[in-house]
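Assemble and predict.
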Amino acid sequence: MTFSLLHATDFADRLLYKIIPPLKAGMIVLADRYAFTAFARDATRGVDRQWVRELYSFAVRPDLSLYFRVPIDVSVDRLLARRVKLKFYEAGMDLGWSANPVESFRLFQGKVLAEYDQIVQEFGMEVIDAVRSITEQQRVVRNVIAQHVQMRRLEISDDEPV
Amino acid sequence: MTSPSDGSSSAPDGANGDGPAGGYYGRGIPYLPIAGYPGKLIAIEGTDGVGRSTQIQLLRAWLEIRGYGVVETGWTRSPLMQPTIEVAKSSNTLNKLTFVLLYATDFADRLEKEIIPALKAGFVVLSDRYIFTALARAGVRGVDRQWLRNLYGFAIAPHMVFYLNIDVKSLLGRVLESRGMDFWESGMDLKHGDDIYDSFRAYQNKLLREYSSMADEFHFRVVDARRPIDRIQDELRKNVAAFLESSEKPAEPALSR
């Protein structure tokens, strides 16, 4: 619970200082992770799913949300290729499922990924296949965003004739 | 941010007075089942400077003499959060939402690490303030009431809630005679003006109204806190004794100490 609430506090702070002001100014805000991360992570730690959703009801609903999906094996391989040590909480070591960080990561993040699959459905997120190359992914992302941003621009120009 | 599909379907399921004493108010903490724990949770509520701590001190000594194990817990006293809350209060970056969430984090920590283990072990837990202080303070600051009640759905409904009731005039005298007025207790963050006296009076007035609006819903036992200390204590002891004796399984007597 404290893990969940501390993250919510941090999120509220960033929302009010870093997200809402630029939105008011008409800027595009790119959020690296959002409330969905909390939904997946906290549920995996045994917090009530509906409670977390209600907790985050103060969050702004994103105009567009992308989910980069990878199988757990790809995720582990990529992390281990770059980093010597997995982070304690990222590996869910606090849950005591395994004393081996890699094994714990696999178990914990495996469950997190399963939560994400539900969340993607529930909130209608755009799924990007993150197994593909960076260039390929970026092409897809640009396509998705281009469609969306153009639509928004038309709406705004209706509201504010110069 | 709730899911777009579920709309207004689900009924409110946060903290409200319907929860059975000793159980979770709302959705609770799924990984910590608490049903059947022998301990008792007694909350002493009331605004700043009303005399809660004095009463709790006396009550604790009296309970221990009678053989009960007693654990005290108080608002913002968690080892995890207290330093953070102090730092946050001293800077100017707190807003009402982060304020509420920091308090809730502190409470969650004390609930998991102090209150629930003590209830499990059969202690009488005396809580100096409870979620009603959080609800009142946030209510005065305009935070959505239903959201707050959902947030505190993980709290446990106390077996007894004593509300030390006082009017602003008596409170003013008492606070000025003892330790003086404090920035937050005077609601200076609400910017009612530069005068701390006026701000204190306006803020505490609103706060008291918030507390009394919860009295019926959450079954407060309202105690007139304008009376002398020992008269108030007598009333608390009479009520607590009656409750502990009437409950089938009284809290287990403390073996040590």
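Chain B has a mean pLDDT of 87.
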